[in-house]
Design brief:
Chain lengths: 331, 293
Amino acid sequence: MTTTRPQTTPAAAPVHRYPRWRSRQLLLGAAVMLAALALPFVADAYTVSIASTAIVLAVLAMSTQLLTGIAGLPSLGQAAYLGVGAYTAALLATVGGVSNGLVQLAVAAAAGAVAAAVTAPLLLRTRGVLFLMASFAVAELTRTIAAQWSSVTGGDDGLHTPPVTVWPGTPPLRSDGYAYLYLLGCFLILVVVVAVLLRSRLVLALRAAADHEARLAALGYHVNRHLFAGFVCAGALAGAGGALLVAAHGYLSPADLGLDMSAMALLAAAIGLGTMRGAVAGAVLVVAVRDLLGTPTGGHAPALLGLAFLVVAYQPAITDRLATWKRSRQR
Amino acid sequence: MTAYAVTALDGLAFGLALFVVAAGLTLIFGVMDVLNLAHGSLYLAGAYLAYLAYLFSHGSLVGLVVALVVGVVVGVGGGAALAAAVRPLTGYGHLHQALATLGIAYLAADGYTVFGGAPVPVNPPNILAGSLDLGRHGYPVYRLLFIAVAAAVALALHLAVARSRYGVLLRATVADPGMAAATGVNTRRVQTAAMAAGSVLAVTGGVLAAPLIGPAPGADTTVLVLSLIVVVIGGASSIGGAGSITGTLAAALLVGLVQTVGVLAAPTLAPFALFAVLLTVLVSRSRTAVQPA
């Protein structure tokens, strides 16, 4: 992140407290996992479909976080690679006749990576807010292509896809509950991949590039090569999210890769304050605000999203000012 | 062949409309260092103003003039409000400012739902609704007038930035705000003025261009992204300099032509063509580096 606000680094924790902190996190993780697993058995179909949407957005939010929170490249265009992956998966299912969800997932991730590699020379010419502009432009152009290339993408009418299968010979996952559990399983696989990635040298170099690019270059690193690799990883992750989108809805249209998708992913990443688990929590929160609160307020979901954007944008400024104010009162 | 000539004229009008909006975006970005993602919403406000004016004045010219005056007021008010909204976020990075303007854009989009979910048609005032014979083809008078007015706006902007006292203050604030403030320039006032001027350009651009790029849900995003492409191609690094207006104009005309002549020549290839233009410009230019703070 390129924010200049003072980082509040906690004092080094005593060694003996570390395991307790660790076990508390594991417990929380297990509780969230259990709740997510139990959801289709206790909740209605509508809630389950919202949870499926949240999983898709969580994958896209992780992809956005890799760029925004880790590499310091604020992206408002990750929906482009989600779209490339989604159309690849959908065409694989309809034209290619491949109903295996895991094959779709792998091919969609590869397609997302290729799309990212093709557009990286363009985008990595820019930094900071210019990257934000350029990534948004790339995403909107991708959406326009999806809308106009109707012989392949079905245009604005979109594509309907058959339900996915998990294993050759097994029946397709027709019910929403099974599809949700399949998405959850794929999500866990992707979480493990991201967790491994976060412990890699690449991510360390990306963090360094975000902190001080010139210094990293002076140390002899090929900064743009590292950013390219990070960008391709983010593209692959978003592409995999696209395959999940198709598996979740059984339908795909250019609207699925519009500004809303990229913006919500960026919002989730910003809520997550640079961490992956924060981005996932942010994605769940954003979908909950839009879909669960949007219905009772009579379709004012855009206004709710707008308020969420404003809250996230002003939160650090307000917190800092409150802290300053409190300090001045104590004196 | 003449079909292409007429479409090229359309491209000129479209490009000039984009120029007026994108010039406002460049101004705000250059002076305030803020990416205004609510810029498309300002355009849409102007376009809906033109729609209301046409509806209530039954297509008289007075309606358009009133809409323009209201547009200037809305632009100044909106710009000042945006400046006030963004100022507390100075020092918290571009991301937070972008998120704030994006939030405002979403709130505005929710407000525009009172106009319904379908595009609303906006016609030019009745006196200007005819068409002029150009060879074998008729061409709408309003578009020709729009081209003339927008070209005049471009010239006025160029002269204001390059020659006037305000232009000097503006360029000084862009080049080095701290130094400008030290020499006695009220940079805060310059910034607010630039934000207001940029917003006025977007809103009045919307009023005038409503018959070209009509008000519809989603038109804010379309206009925003095309303006962003214009700003990126036009050389976002040289903002505020005397060359920036010409750069923005050239980029706007290029995008306008690709979006009209390109679509006529090869409908599916036009978005790819914009991609190609973006790529060529960004790769051929030295890196537009904004070093992280």
